[in-house]
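Q: Got a minute? One more chain.
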Amino acid sequence: MSVSTEPHDRFVIGVDFGTLSGRALVVRVGDGAEVGTAVHAYRSGVMDSVLAADGRALPADWALQDPDDYRDVLRHAVPGALAASGVAADQVIGIGIDFTACTVLPTLADGTPLCELPELRTRPHAYVKLWKHHAAQPQADRINALAHQRGEPWIGRYGGKVSAEWQYAKALQLLEEDPEVYTRAERWIEAADWIVWQLCGAETRNVCTAGYKGLRQDGRYPSRDYLAALHPGFADFVQKIDGPLAALGARAGGLTAQAAAWTGLPEGIAVAVGNVDAHVTAAAAQALEPGRLVAIMGTSTCHVVNGTEVAEVAGMCGVVDGGISAGFWGYEAGQSGVGDIFGWYVEHSAPDGYASHELLTEQAAAQPVGAHGLMALDWWNGNRSLLVNHDLSGVIVGLTLATRPPDVYRALLESTAYGTRMIIEAFAAAGVPVDELIVAGGLTGNPLLMQIYADVTNRPLGIIGSAQGPALGSAIHAAVAAGAHPDVAAASAVMGRVDRDAYLPDPGRVRAYDALYAEYRRLHDHFGRGGDDVLLRLRDIRNAARSVALPTQSGEAALRLEVMA
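A: Always. Here it is, folded:
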């Protein structure tokens, strides 16, 4: 398709900040045509074993990033996408961003990241904690236990458990392990809001992350009394996260001169309020209507669906008024490991001759359902929903001397589909209908995986019509912030796209998977709901064996941090 770039055409840019890189996408506001894209990899990537600044070892389950890598995406990917598009800079009217979440960092009052202060450059807690930083599980356990003990009204809105990935557990870990850095942190802010601050020069907080990750419900955050009961020094934590709150699709401000120089875009154009990569994708997939669940499948999976009523769903990540789009209650759930599990097997476990997704998929597809005799639990990176326990680990049962690599690979694919079915059934049981599954993300190109999901969930499966769902969703929100469309729903109808009913469930395979899913549930409950805590005990043994000494920067005795999840 030829793309007109006449002067009357208007364009927006969506920037998707992922786990390892950021992508910029130039999109025409009139029809959603994607006319140019560019990717920039983070220089420091994910710091999960050593701190890049000094090479010091990090404890297990840490995952840090350098915020200047995010600025580099603005400096490189945005101009690169603009150049690839052939669009003139003065035709761009707005920019929007999305981020992985909860990815959070401590800053000064002016937004300066603490890790950029020379005296804190080698303090691990001064850096961004990526969504997959799971070392705050003990703090999350205490947050949950105290909330139930006190009968805190907000805990039910999060399925009864707050995740170790979210703002409070990570901040409490910071306070307890490096109180000096905690005290220096005047702001504790989602990376989505921080990068918008960098773009427009004004701090905003988006309703999505404030609700799902910041525990803001019914206009309030958790009380000072509750926070003080967790730790006396935590009583004032809300002061670090409270700030101007804006709806999704709102204009956060205009592009500053500095950000214009980074990006090559006109100063003053609209900067949309930040958003989460999964939630923003619902608009790109034309899935804002209730009952259409979007599964954004990549290294992990996030499940989002709108509902007309508020309900408490056991094990969900949260329900937030307007958290996906205005006028609905937005529900979120997720799986901490999906594509990462398949990648782990291919890169580290598949024998020579089988280390290929394409070969393993081809051979796994030739099997009848259940022929491999295996069952796996999809907990290689812990469990986000429904158990909300990142100390859990993966399981495969049924292995024999006759088991071959395609058998294991298919069992891993199926395990993630079973995990998604658990989530769908939890929503349905709470009165939140899921009639249709729409998949976005990098795993949509695997037809076997997509068909397995349709058969396991017994629902029609659609595929988003864009390979860059989050970036397109951010562009849609940028178009609304710039005034090109009246609201996100209207922009989604014009700029979004989806191939509905791309995969339909096969009745015979559905019956076969029903029987296997029953076995998955038994295994799930045995290892995840108290039948046997062997997975937790094994992790404790591992952590004790891998304790790491981290010296403080104050000249005092070395601070010994036990390696904790």
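A: Confidence is low (pLDDT under 50) at residues 1-7, 549-565.
Q: Perfect, thanks.
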